[in-house]
Design a protein that fits this description.
Length: 284
């Protein structure tokens, strides 16, 4: 009886630890702000991943996952068909770095505000959180600028060729399934092992269009753009280029550097051909 009672206590402790630890952030509807509260620096630094990284930085600090090319959608139509949600959003209003549910990687969660929906149930003004399989965390309580042991996770590092500050995103997202949830729970990019489906719009820093577009969020207050309809109208008439940051994305050849306005029309035409109702999902 004593042995069985001991086993029971172990099971209970494991269950409590699972419920209170990193597995919490696997819930798909949590926001970046919630995840950041659950995993402050002290929790991340005390994690087994950080402890291994500090003990063996030469072997534990860099984790690069290959992209499974079979998961790449070959066309815009296929990418939309495979997606649960296809949306136009303003720039990220909040991001959070965290230990993945597996405990073996770090990922980034981003909160974005919806400007328009071509597929799915999100409405303009909704906050959407998705997981990105690329991030880093410092395994130390020291200020970030002072440096310290750091663990990095990337996915297809040699193929991701964009590193700017976007003003808007076109996102193709779907719910993670099966083993995918161990790295990127909840919503993630539809293809390319979680790397195909993010198409950023970046404005030149010196351009007055940044102010005119009304696309910015107030990052400190998670505020929706001042006039989302003006933002949408601006993008629908923009001659600025869309970016295809994943060089092995099959969409790269036909769409990289295409004018934003043309790219949005291509998406609308594709949604219409598949029976989408994006025309009704715009800011009022």
């Amino acid at each position: 009886m004593n042995q069985m009672a001991g086993i029971g206590r172990v099971i209970l402790i494991v269950a409590i630890a699972f419920g209170c630890g990193f597995a919490q952030q696997a819930a798909p509807d949590k926001r970046a702000r919630d995840i950041e509260k659950e995993q402050p620096r002290k929790v991340i630094t005390a994690s087994p991943l950080c402890q291994r990284t500090m003990a063996h930085p030469e072997t534990e600090s860099m984790h690069d996952h290959p992209i499974d090319r079979s998961t790449l959608a070959p066309s815009l139509t296929a990418l939309m068909e495979r997606s649960d949600d296809v949306i136009l959003t303003s720039t990220s209003s909040k991001s959070a770095e965290a230990i993945a549910p597996s405990g073996d990687d770090v990922i980034e969660y981003q909160d974005v505000k919806v400007l328009r929906t071509w597929k799915g149930l999100f409405k303009p003004g909704d906050t959407v959180t998705f997981a990105f399989p690329w991030s880093s965390v410092q395994c130390s309580l020291a200020p970030v600028e002072s440096g310290g042991p750091t663990v990095y996770t990337t996915t297809g590092a040699g193929y991701w060729q964009w590193s700017g500050a976007p003003e808007a995103y076109v996102l193709f997202l779907r719910r993670a399934q099966g083993v995918e949830t161990l790295l990127t729970p909840g919503l993630r990019m539809t293809g390319g092992s979680g790397m195909q489906g993010m198409y950023p719009v970046q404005f030149p820093a010196s351009s007055p269009l940044i102010k005119e577009s009304h696309c910015q969020n107030d990052l400190s207050r998670d505020k929706y753009p001042e006039d989302p309809k003006l933002c949408l109208e601006f993008l629908e008439n923009s001659d600025l280029p869309i970016s295809i940051p994943l060089s092995i994305d099959p969409l790269f050849k036909n769409y990289n550097e295409m004018r934003v306005s043309e790219f949005l029309r291509e998406i609308q035409d594709t949604a219409d051909s598949l029976g989408g109702d994006g025309a009704t999902q715009e800011p009022k």
